[in-house]
């Protein structure tokens, strides 16, 4: 849906002509992301939440925390699941119904970036080994589309988790029941702040955080997630063109540099 | 998965991996082109314990019609695991993982195909995982590329795929199932060897910038090894004994 | 012909570099000329091309082809011509100018499953290829057996100035009609000759890349020399 939006040819020509001069249609530098605004705590009923605007792309994210059974082979760690959905009101081409391959990829890439960074120490979310653990469920809903949902959803998820208050649960070993301790909360066990940076490739030019117009003339794209130590935790290439090995290294450097700036914004928003 | 985690030594003091390979050694790779009668092109690959069949149809009429593109042909890929291909029976319905892999495989093959020559048509690539091991998406891609060449779909270049990863703090070539489960990072890469372009790259796991670069280069070396096997498969089918 | 340089290639193989003309089944990347299909590359004069050993039939105007009727509307037949596109045979082509869709029933002339010998009248990127049977020797094929070979092997089956086809026909007494699209109809009075002809055609398809194939087929059919 998002990539099939047809852009008028004149605008496309302009985007390409400007890029040849090293300029972008909205005046940004090639490696400059759009303005990022994050409000946390927007959904009080959720344990953590955020509304993120990246340019005109808008995402609302909520975190629910509840006790659950662990995965059979992962009895020593809590559950962490991150999803994403494009709401029908976000884009004229978005339709209700089962997710298509683009939305499935979006959700999996956002989930993978945060999961692989080890942002939340899941081993601290065990109530009783192999029996009961705490689950953190992060749901992203795209409410307005202007390109680059990967980063917008990732920032929304990270900000929601940072602002999240973990309720305290008690496991009763006599009957295996779990109860919530009212009024007691703690901060989630955060180990690092992952930042996803998505870059588009138009011709041989790499641009950071493409907007919807740029997104629809992109030849290829790559999303690289880095952690606070400046290491790379996840990569996903997409689009119908390839990258040279040199471009892959260039993109990794951009993602580390840009990621550091965005990490500061996320930290502030998360209140840590 | 039946083995307890603590029982596996991923890399011993002599630099030998859990399946006896050296750090830069790929698993055994065998590809055969033209294995199906009805498909326009086909290939079978064994890559480690992976056993994968790929069939290509087209270019042909697009159904449903509204998917057709008047400027160029379209490509559809389906990566599908057989219920019996893994330890515990897999539900035959396509999972979210399979849908994502189908998409990245499609996007890895697309740069190589000259579909602009076939407006209003579709090329369908069907990939069936008969037995799965680590690196099945790379092996699937390798078979699909050979099947496309076998079908005679015009291609700018071959597409060769291989993974690299990090195991016991060391960058190694071609991750197997145990290394995928217990290792620190897995990076599948697909490459057009003559045009020098990476058409698929994914990464799970943490790498320093230096390790990242090394991992990319290690995977590319693997792609080049795979490329030779793909070439041989096509030469054997089309040129038989005459191929020097 | 001796100064033509030939080589087996697969997609991606760099055939040569330098100021050559890139012709069929190759593409230019920088100064490299790269094969886009499995086949035999040829460098001659200043041009480079690849003779494909696999691939779909791409219709070209005036090609003689064999088609199978797969359906019809009130105005035209749709033909399977072994290509990525269906061939369109307009009703006027068969009924003439005064064709009237209200009166004339298309199935009275050709129905689904019929084989026809035809030519490509028009073919471009934007439409399905237009087919005609309005010429002598064209039209419905009444008897014979249909074989399907790879369209890329058709030149080999015909042979230089028809040498291969003549060899097979004279040794088997069969009549062979070859469509450029890889559909071949074999007919003949003698069942044994028919079988031998079919076998010979299959051998040509399997060994299309082998040199001196005509001699091999001659040996196989036992026609010592012709």
What is the CA-CA span between the terminal residues of chain B? 43 Å
Q: What's the total helix number of chain B? A: 4
Q: What composes the largest sheet of chain C?
A: 6 strands, antiparallel
Spans of at least 5 consecutive residues with low confidence of chain C: none
**How far apart are the termini of chain C?**
24 Å
What is the oligomer described by this structure? heterotrimer
| CATH-scheme architecture of chain B | 2-Layer Sandwich
Structural class of chain C: alpha+beta
Q: What is the overall silhouette of chain B?
A: globular
Strand order of the largest sheet of chain B: 1-2-3-5-4
Outline of chain C: flat
Overall pLDDT confidence of chain C = 89
Mean pLDDT, all residues of chain B:
93
What order do the helices and strands of chain C follow?
EEEEEEEEEEHEEEEHHEEHH
CATH superfamily placement of chain B? GHMP Kinase, N-terminal domain
The proportion of residues in beta strands of chain C is 25-35%
Biggest interface goes to: A-B, 34 and 34 residues
Could you characterize the architecture of this molecule?
The complex is a heterotrimer of chains A (about 270), B (about 240) and C (about 230). Chain A has about 270 residues and is α+β, with helices and mostly antiparallel strands. Chain A has one domain: GHMP Kinase, N-terminal domain (Ribosomal Protein S5, domain 2). Helix content of chain A is about 25%, strand content about 35%. Chain A has helices spanning about 10-20, 100-115, 150-160, 210-215, 245-270, and strands at about 35-40, 50-55, 55-70, 80-85, 125-130, 130-145, 165-170, 175-185, 195-200, 205-210, 220-225, 230-240. In chain A, strands 1, 2, 3, 4, 5 and 6 form a six-stranded mixed sheet that branches. A four-stranded antiparallel sheet of chain A has the order 10-9-11-12. A two-stranded antiparallel ribbon of chain A has the order 7-8. The two termini of chain A are about 35 Å apart. The model of chain A has no long low-confidence stretch (mean pLDDT about 95). Chain B has four helices and nine strands; from the N terminus they run E-E-E-E-H-E-H-E-E-H-E-E-H. In chain B, the strands form two sheets. In chain B, strands 1-2-3-5-4 form a five-stranded mixed sheet. In chain B, strands 7-6-8-9 form a four-stranded antiparallel sheet. Residues about 1-5 of chain B have low confidence and may be disordered. With about 230 residues, chain C is an alpha+beta fold. Chain C has three domains: about 5-50, RNA polymerase II/Efflux pump adaptor protein, barrel-sandwich hybrid domain (OB fold (Dihydrolipoamide Acetyltransferase, E2P), Beta Barrel), CATH 2.40.50; about 65-140, Nucleic acid-binding proteins (OB fold (Dihydrolipoamide Acetyltransferase, E2P), Beta Barrel); about 145-220, K Homology domain, type 1 (Ribosomal Protein S8, Chain: A, domain 1). Chain C has helices at about 90-95, 155-160, 165-170, 190-205, 215-220, and strands spanning about 5-10, 15, 20, 25-30, 30-35, 40-45, 45-50, 65-70, 75-80, 85-90, 115-120, 130, 140, 145-150, 175-180, 185. In chain C, strands 8, 9, 10, 11, 12 and 13 form a six-stranded antiparallel sheet that branches. In chain C, strands 1-6-7-3 form a four-stranded mixed sheet, with no helix packed on it. In chain C, strand 11 and strand 12 form a beta hairpin. Chain C is flat. The interface of A and B includes residues 105, 112 and 118 of A. Strand 12 of chain A pairs antiparallel with strand 9 (about 195-205) of chain B.
